[in-house]
Design brief:
heterodimer; A: alpha/beta; Rossmann fold; globular; B: 326 residues; alpha/beta; four-stranded mixed β-sheet
Chain lengths: 369, 326
């Protein structure tokens, strides 16, 4: 369980707040805290585990495809599956909204984004960011931090129109240094927007370690400065993340405003397929982090509960493998784009000047009218 | 027909559009009880409530950035930047997010956002309040740029902008807010984007301007008329989309012309106008096209801004120069 923040009065009158221990129910060896009983049913637990396995398998397949030149640069969520799955599972895809960065693949799948569409984005295909109608998520954000104001506006706008929807937005400890994140959390507090800020501290912003990102002992402490609750959780513990998010979503839905959750996790893969993390990651630290990997942790718990054995996981893995094969085929069958389609969605009605440019590009007619 | 100042026309249009469509909401600094520092939103909060006229924290990036989310939720947000000069604090949200959301989501998310932004010089504002930054936005594909010069157009272009499903940067000239008065019909009307206004027609020189510089060009044309030089004066109204046809026709007729802008010379929108004109009307040109602009120096502090902002005398001198060219 979590401790509480400790406030120390300094001799000169200043006040320093020391962070609490992260909330944890599931220990790295898969043992459950005695007083905790999972809020998720057996079926939900197995679905969560499946989503985590699908995420890990998609990463492996996508990196292989990238090496073969069949996908572009891709950033995988390896090591962060519990932080992502544990939080997004709380959302009701039919009414709630997700505002993701590029690293939250399993969250997008939970909201209903088809797997081939997810892969299509990394193929560099313009339709890859076309979130289908009915799937409640904004397109993948690349300019980290800029999505956080969007999430606050979305939450505010939905509430303005009488909805009880909640918005879940992901960002990292790196993006938390961006001014947009400060502005957004400040506004969310003022407007009591129904938004959950899910900050994943995965230890690294490409090569910048968390200690060089911020001097704080816990990013969750920042919530106090915005006038809403903050909570630090073990981001590799599915139950801790789920528990904190469930409470945060409940508060948001009932009009009690935003929450900041810091999920402390660890990026087990390089930043992306263009990154060589051996240049800056200490191998000993990485080995220690692997011992806290959320996937074997949940596997150990499920086995102990009698919900999963080797045979069941083998079937699950085969099923996922087939699902991925089908998705890759579908992703690769999407046709190439023609130059004139660059112009298709820039404005609702193409201005004449752009229409000339479209025709010049597609017909080789460079002459203005 | 009532005579209105630009700021009155803008205020009444905001009210009319809020009446017409309950999805329209206003957000910005000091727009509520204070009615906006220029009174552009005066009494609107009393009339439409605090939920539709929303006072925001002093934070431009989230004023624009939250508008992205408000639009995605189905609303029509009209964020106000108190001054376009502070648009730099939101530029990444405008250029990187608002302008390209339709394109990057392949049509899933429309951004019917109108970013209102007062700008322009000769009103003795403090530093960084006056800059004419329109070219940066015109170089940001996906957002339209409207720059009304008259109260009539302020109403018609603003109504058009609010009803446009695409984002619009709507630049309001500080100098024109109260000085620029025109007859403005009470009934509903819109002014289409991409259709320039021809204020006068003359066969000697074409003057091209937008926003408050239209007034400078007009006064330059008056001075030239006293010397027997007849000018055509074109108000572009919108930079994006750009009315190439009106430019081409005017230069084809006069063969000589000048662009008048309040922004610094280099990479200003005037350069785009000159390039466009020479593509369409090169063989009709009888003299190099002149450019009247602010010098390439930072916008100065108040007491010397008249030296910086182009005035009608500079326009007249340039008219004489292009008339003398072979």
């Amino acid at each position: 369980m979590a401790g509480s923040a400790d406030t120390r009065q300094l001799a000169d009158g200043g006040v320093r707040v020391e962070p609490p221990e992260p909330l944890q129910f599931l220990a790295p060896d898969g043992s459950l805290a005695q007083e905790y009983e999972p809020a998720l049913s057996d079926e939900e637990l197995l679905a969560a585990f499946r989503l985590m396995l699908l995420s890990r398998a998609t990463s492996e397949r996508a990196v292989n495809l990238q090496r073969q030149g069949r996908l572009g640069t891709i950033a995988t969520p390896d090591g962060q599956e519990a932080a992502i799955v544990g939080s997004v599972l709380v959302l009701d895809p039919a009414r709630d909204w997700l505002v993701p960065t590029y690293r939250e693949m399993p969250a997008m799948i939970h909201m209903g984004l088809p797997l081939p569409r997810f892969l299509l984005y990394y193929r560099g295909h313009p339709l890859g960011n076309q979130v289908p109608e009915g799937v409640n998520m904004l397109p993948v954000q690349i300019a980290l931090g800029t999505q956080v104001p969007h999430a606050v506006g979305l939450a505010w706008g939905l509430r303005h129109q009488g909805s009880d929807a909640v918005v879940l937005v992901y960002f990292g400890e790196g993006a938390s240094s961006e001014g947009d994140v400060h502005e957004a959390m400040n506004l969310a507090g003022v407007r009591q927007a129904p938004v959950v800020f899910l900050l994943q501290d995965n230890g690294w912003a490409i090569s910048t370690p968390v200690a060089q990102q911020s001097a704080t002992g816990s990013f969750a402490l920042r919530a106090a400065g915005y006038g809403f609750p903050g909570e630090l959780v073990d981001g590799n513990d599915l139950f801790a993340v789920h528990d904190a998010t469930r409470r945060a979503v409940e508060r948001a839905r009932t009009g009690e405003g935003p929450t900041l959750i810091e999920a402390r996790t660890y990026r087990l893969a390089p930043h992306n397929t263009s990154d060589d993390s051996s240049r800056y990651v200490d191998p000993t630290q990485l080995e220690e982090a692997r011992a806290r990997d959320p996937v074997p942790r949940l596997r150990a718990f499920l086995s102990e509960r009698g919900l999963l054995d080797e045979e069941a996981e083998r079937r699950l893995t085969e099923e996922i493998s087939e699902e991925l094969a089908v998705a890759v085929r579908e992703m690769e069958s999407e046709s190439e784009f023609a130059a004139e389609q660059l112009f298709e969605h820039v404005y609702e009605t193409l201005p004449r000047r752009l229409d000339h440019q479209r025709r010049a590009l597609s017909e080789g007619d460079g002459e203005p009218d | 027909m009532a005579v209105m100042s630009m700021v009155e026309a803008i205020r009444s249009t905001l009210a009319a559009e809020m009446d017409r469509d309950e999805r329209v909401i206003l957000l910005g600094q000091d727009i509520g009880a204070n009615g906006g520092v220029f009174r552009a939103t005066e009494h609107l909060q009393e009339r439409f409530g605090e939920d539709r006229v929303v006072d925001m924290p002093l934070a431009e990036a989230v004023i624009v950035g939250s508008s992205v989310g408000l639009a995605a939720s189905g609303l029509i947000p009209i964020p106000e930047l108190q001054f376009l000069g502070f648009g730099s604090q939101a530029f990444h949200q405008i250029e990187g997010q608002v302008a390209r959301m339709r394109a990057r989501s392949a049509g899933r998310f429309e951004m019917p956002i109108v970013i209102r932004a007062p700008f322009g010089g000769n009103v003795r504002t403090p530093e960084l309040h006056s800059d004419a930054h329109e070219a940066k936005y015109a170089n940001s594909p996906g957002i339209k740029v409207a720059m009304p010069a008259s109260a009539y157009d302020a109403k018609g272009l603003l109504a058009e902008a609010i009803r446009d499903p695409d984002p619009v940067l709507f630049c309001e000239p500080l100098r024109g807010y109260r000085l620029q008065k025109d007859e403005v019909p009470e009934e509903d009307y819109t002014v289409p984007f991409g259709e320039a206004r021809v204020l006068r027609e003359g066969d000697d020189v074409t003057l091209v301007a937008w926003s408050v510089a239209v007034n400078v060009a007009e006064r330059g044309a008056d001075l030239a008329a006293e010397e027997g030089i007849a000018c055509t004066v074109i108000d572009l109204r919108t930079l994006v989309p750009l009315d190439e046809q009106t430019l081409a026709e005017a230069f084809a007729r006069t063969g000589r012309g000048i662009v008048v802008q309040e922004a610094p010379l280099t990479a200003g929108f005037g350069a785009e106008v000159v390039a466009t004109v020479q593509e369409h009307a090169f063989w009709a040109l009888e003299a190099p096209i002149g450019r009247i602009a602010a010098p390439d120096v930072p916008y100065p502090i108040g007491a010397i801004e008249e030296q910086y902002v182009p005035g009608p005398e500079r326009v007249l001198a340039e008219i004489q120069r292009v008339m003398e060219a072979a």
